[in-house]
Write a structure and sequence with these properties.
The complex is a heterodimer. Chain A is elongated. Helices cover about 35% and strands about 25% of the residues of chain A. Chain A folds into two domains: about 1-45 and about 130-290, P-loop containing nucleotide triphosphate hydrolases (Rossmann fold); about 60-120, Alpha-Beta Plaits. A nine-stranded mixed β-sheet of chain A has the order 3-6-7-2-8-1-9-10-11, sandwiched between helices. In chain A, strands 4-5 form a two-stranded antiparallel sheet. Chain A has helices at about 15-25, 45, 75-80, 105, 145-165, 180-185, 200-215, 230-240, 255-260, 275-290, and strands at about 1-5, 30-35, 50-65, 85, 90-95, 115-125, 135-140, 170, 190-195, 220-225, 245-250. By secondary structure, chain A is α/β, with parallel strands linked by helices. The radius of gyration of chain B is 22 Å and the shape is elongated. Chain B starts with a strand and ends with a helix. The longest helix of chain B is centred in the last third of the chain and has 23 residues, at about 265-290. The chains are: A alpha/beta, B alpha/beta. At the A-B interface, helix 7 and helix 9 of A face helix 3, helix 6 and helix 8 of B. Bound molecules: iron/sulfur cluster (SF4) (4 copies). One iron/sulfur cluster binds near residues 83, 93, 100, 101 and 103 of chain A. Chain B: GO terms for molecular function: iron-sulfur cluster binding; metal ion binding. Chain B: Keywords: Iron, Iron-sulfur, Metal-binding. Chain B: This is Iron-sulfur cluster-binding/ATPase domain protein, MinD superfamily. Chain B: It holds the Pfam family CbiA.
Chain lengths: ~290, ~290
């Protein structure tokens, strides 16, 4: 089983649309994983059935038992995150601010503070409209540590792909260059970088490639909206050559991406033969590189 | 007045709006633009700026003093983030995992873990005539974005007067860093685009903004590219649409070259005027209150 992770560093490059297109080309030979847990969108194109849901807990959050509390204020003194305030005669904890360090609970003499598991989101296993399996998740508002939820989603996807002897796992990676994207890259056999020829696209591509390099994963790049700016496009191509990143394909600017999205379709099922061909060729190139 | 410019997700045009709106408002008001997308600050790409000041931003992490340590193991047990381990006769510290809670340091019976500053990122203050521009930038691999966002905001509060219009370019998403960047804003502008992705991300952003009890309005970017579901949603939810920025190739081309858009594209400038008018009514409301 080979694992392809699609990332972009920057949002809005068409990463999710392209990932969904690859998933629709792979049909049932793959398991699809959406690691963009902060703002998961792929379900809008692949229409999974949300068949199975599990809550995800990570880290802790402090809770004061008012019956035991003697209002001494020691907890508020030690909390470095301003999470404990005094309201209407009681010490109260703001769950959005609490980092779960547990310091307050250790200094409370009457043991009035309990550390509880924090519910940070939920993950799902589904069947997509192609009949392939999909693992995806939703992070609760204000939750952090999406890296752990990403790792969980990936682990479940991998177990599923191995159990069903699938040849591929296609992952919509997390945005950015932080902890979540690191989690979404771990264990990958191929990273597909989706970028666009804008100054910030190039800038973010370079930054996110720094992260990819550390993992020593084979990388390829699709330049989407390639005809938007010839100068920047050439700069990106130069960068790919310097870094020996496989230049998979240029995809010209087309309205088909948004039109397909509005109809809840992937761009490879949407009737634009030219675009479809470009995506099929991209998929072939990637498969050849991976030897699947 | 503090205005946060946010969006459920990256790529909706948040930075385009922030930079252009800041420069446009700057023609008649005192404005500071603050890039709080500390993991990937991009505003600087669109502004010609001159560096006024640069500061290292630090976070506090414990340093182990072997001489006084009795290897009682208490610190290892109490760190909730597993940032300390005991290996043989040594206590090892993993700075990336440390949340700077001070628990180990202050509870160590022999005071063998004093807290020390370590660089986590940089803050830069620029003049981007006529506005000023402040950027927080996290070191690659560093995870405590929230702390750097808080420190960047603190710097701005210290160096600028209240009557200055502060525009925060917020990080994408709905997690902790976004909350930190909008929690003390007087108003939040949510940027979206008229597609199913745009609508889906907008609903998450609205949920977050409402959970924080903030006043907010929506700017629809790339208007005309998709369907009218975003508009219908805003009407049903009673959300003000502050402006619609048309979907034009010209705008995308200006953006791709790192240029400001309103000096070149009239319809874009009109949209900024509508937003500026709205912001002025907001600040008058403030005076009345
Ligand atoms: S330390 Fe314990 S007893 Fe004191 S105010 Fe906090 S919760 Fe109450
Ligand atoms: S667990 Fe830590 S962050 Fe949360 S309230 Fe207690 S001291 Fe503050
Ligand atoms: S708590 Fe202090 S004395 Fe005990 S092992 Fe840690 S550093 Fe050493
Ligand atoms: S300061 Fe807090 S998070 Fe950091 S090592 Fe000590 S106990 Fe752990």
């Amino acid at each position: 089983m080979k694992e392809i992770v699609v990332i972009s560093g920057k949002g809005g490059t068409g990463k999710t649309s392209i990932t969904a297109a690859l998933a629709s080309l792979a049909q049932q030979s793959c398991v699809v994983v959406d690691c963009d847990v902060d703002a998961a969108d792929m379900h809008l194109l692949l229409q999974p059935d949300f068949a199975h849901k599990e809550d995800f807990y990570s880290g802790q959050v402090a809770k004061i038992d008012e019956m035991l509390c003697r209002n001494c204020g020691r907890c508020a003194d030690v909390c470095r995150f301003d999470a404990i305030g005094f309201k209407e005669g009681h010490y109260v904890i703001d769950e959005l601010l609490c980092e779960g360090c547990g310091y307050c609970a250790r200094v409370c003499r009457p043991s009035a503070i309990e550390m509880r598991e924090r519910l940070v989101g939920a993950w799902y296993t589904s069947k997509t409209k192609y009949g392939s399996d999909m693992v995806h998740a939703k992070l609760s508002i204000g939750a952090e540590n999406s890296g752990k939820l990403v790792a969980k989603v990936k682990k479940e996807g991998k177990a599923m792909a191995l159990a069903q002897h699938k040849s591929l796992m296609i992952v919509d990676g997390s945005p950015g260059i932080g902890c979540p994207v690191v989690s979404s890259l771990s264990g990958a056999n191929f990273v597909l970088l989706v970028t666009e020829p804008t100054l910030s696209g190039l800038h973010d591509l370079k930054r996110v490639y720094e992260v990819v390099k550390r993992f020593r994963i084979k990388a390829g790049c699709i330049i989407n909206k390639s005809d938007l700016n010839a100068t920047v496009c050439a700069q990106i191509e130069e960068f790919l050559e310097e870094e020996a990143i496989l230049h998979v394909k240029n995809i010209p600017y087309t309205k088909a991406f948004s039109h397909a999205m509005i109809q809840g379709q992937t761009v490879s099922e949407y009737s634009d033969p030219e675009l479809k061909r470009l995506l099929e060729e991209s998929f072939e190139t990637i498969k050849q590189t991976l030897g699947v | 007045m503090k205005i946060a410019i946010a969006s459920g997700k990256g790529g909706t045009g948040k930075t385009t709006l922030s930079t252009n709106l800041a420069m446009f408002l700057g023609e008649s008001e005192s404005v500071v633009l603050v890039d709080l997308d500390v993991e990937e600050p991009n505003s600087h790409l669109f502004l010609k700026s001159e560096l006024l000041r640069k500061e290292d931003k630090m976070k506090m992490i414990p340093r182990w003093e072997s001489g006084s340590c009795t290897l009682c193991n208490e610190c290892v047990e109490l760190c909730n983030f597993h940032a300390l381990i005991c290996l043989g006769n040594e206590i090892l510290i993993f700075p990336n995992l440390c949340h700077s809670c001070y628990a180990c340091s202050e509870l160590c019976p022999t005071h063998s873990l004093p807290m020390e500053a370590q660089k986590m990122g940089e803050l830069s203050h620029f003049l981007a005539h006529p506005i000023e521009f402040v950027e927080g930038r996290l070191n690659i691999g560093e995870e405590q974005a929230v702390s750097l966002i808080a420190q960047t905001k603190k710097y701005v509060e210290k160096h600028f007067y209240d009557e200055t219009i502060t525009l925060y370019d917020s990080p994408p998403g709905t997690s902790c860093p976004v909350i930190e960047s909008i929690k003390d804003a007087d108003f939040v502008i949510l940027v979206t685009e008229p597609t199913p992705f745009g609508l889906h991300d907008l609903t998450l952003a609205v949920e977050t903004t409402r959970a924080l009890g903030k006043k907010f309005g929506v700017v629809i970017n790339r208007y005309g590219m998709g369907d009218d579901a975003v508009e219908t949603y805003c009407q049903n939810e009673n959300i003000a649409i502050l402006a619609k920025i048309p979907h034009l190739l010209e705008i995308a081309q200006c953006y791709s070259a790192g240029k400001l858009i309103y000096p070149e594209v009239d319809s874009f400038k009109q949209a900024l005027e509508e937003i500026a008018t709205f912001i002025k009514t907001l600040s008058q409301e403030e005076v009345v209150q």
